[in-house]
Amino acid sequence: MTKKWKFLYLASTALLLAACGNGNTDTEETTEDANAETEEVAEETPADEEGTEEEGSEDPFAHYPAIDMGGRTIKVATWWDFFYDSRHTDPMDNPEVGNVENAQMEIDNVRRIEEKYNVRIEYENLGWEGMIDSINTSVVSGTPDYDIYTVDLQFGLSPAMNGYAIPIEELAPDYADIKNDQTVMTPLDTFGEEYLFAETAIPQSATYMLYNATMLEELGLEDPWTLMENGEWTWDKFAELAQAATRDTDGDGNIDVYGFGGVTTDTTMEFVASNGGAIANTLDEGLSDPATVEALEFIYNMYHVDNFARPYSDDWDGQYNAWVDGSVAFAPVHAWSLVSNGPDLSYDYRIVRWPQGPNGDGTTAGEAIGNHYFIPTGVEDAQAVYQIFEEFRNWFAYDIDLRDNYDWFETAFTSVEDMDLALEIGSSGNGDLWKYSDVNGGAGDALYNIFMGEMTVSQAVESYRQVLQDGLDSFRAE
């Protein structure tokens, strides 16, 4: 955990120390010409066509004016293999293709985009480290290697907030989906600014509280789902059940089953949110906020006073997967981990909302943020690039039944009720960005010391609140 936050600090520092100006007059003039051309087209677009298909039109993309890109290749950097782009001609080009029919629609849309705009689109997998290197070198110099970057916020938020990304307000024309219905693209609000955007999709990145239903039933304990439905699922009730589940099952004098086990990030995000707190949902630190402190005290007691939480260690994978072998009663989980491990579990499981804290309202969850895109400053014809990319990702032609494929997501859950709850949780994030904005390690180091028992909550908060604030201050506009 410590190494992780130190790495983020070094990456962010490199960005902050880099030169801000791009010094590329030719690129700036070209971009201004392209923006003027796109704005002129937008002024000519009838008001009733903005953001939607004109009634009765056979072309759902008629409101996007054609732009001749002269055979240019729009390059998109990512850190995993992407399908499909201009290099692909067959659904089977993706060795893990799922829905072949939808894959063919994506390929057909690629061909349509190529013809309409005289352009090619290619993704390049740079890997995690390669992505950071490209941002820290080419983007901060004003001569980006790629037209679009696909980023995790751990390395995407800092350049966006420090002037290396074009604001969406300047980037997207008025008729763009992102400024209207947001069926295709959704902007990300980062402390009141919008530089990053992502494809509108099923909210499937949330953190859920899993409980071992078999274990609780065998112990004769109350069912958390029933408690939740009755408005009785609180921190106190959770602690009562977790304490009862913590025991020595083999008689060797050592506890081998714990009431709770999970990693610092997920655990903190959700208990803070369940108490109505946030560590960094504004540019003013919330580590010292009373609701946050109360949540941290509850976590500290779980690990060091009541001792029903699995003792924390630097074994991140071990902590993250503590629930898989059935040695904890409650754990933070994600849909992808349930899909991977759920079928092989030796017990029945369910998910439930995180228990309500004394200061919470029972409806708020930690923020669930996946990958986002940004277009860096210095990209030629940036408005045209954005328009083409938005239309390129709209392979489903506004038919959200095609876009929203629940087949994968639903395999994570054991009932329709659980899946519906998961979708609800995924849509109720509190906007807390501490995992991504803590550029100097403030919150990360504070939590590490709390979980490891090396500091009390008051000591950790007092030691690191200003460190966190200094990191947030680096995002403030000059």
UniProtKB/TrEMBL annotation:
Sorted UniProt keywords:
Signal
Point out the signal peptide segment: 1-25
Q: Identify one Pfam family in the record.
A: SBP_bac_1
Q: Which PROSITE patterns match?
A: PROKAR_LIPOPROTEIN
Q: What are the transmembrane regions?
A: none
Would the keyword Cell membrane be found if you checked this record's keyword annotation? no
Signal among keywords:
yes
Q: Where is the composition biased (Acidic residues)?
A: 26-58
Against Gene3D superfamilies, the record matches this protein to: Periplasmic binding protein-like II (3.40.190.10)
Region (Disordered) location: 23-64
Q: What is this protein called?
A: Uncharacterized protein
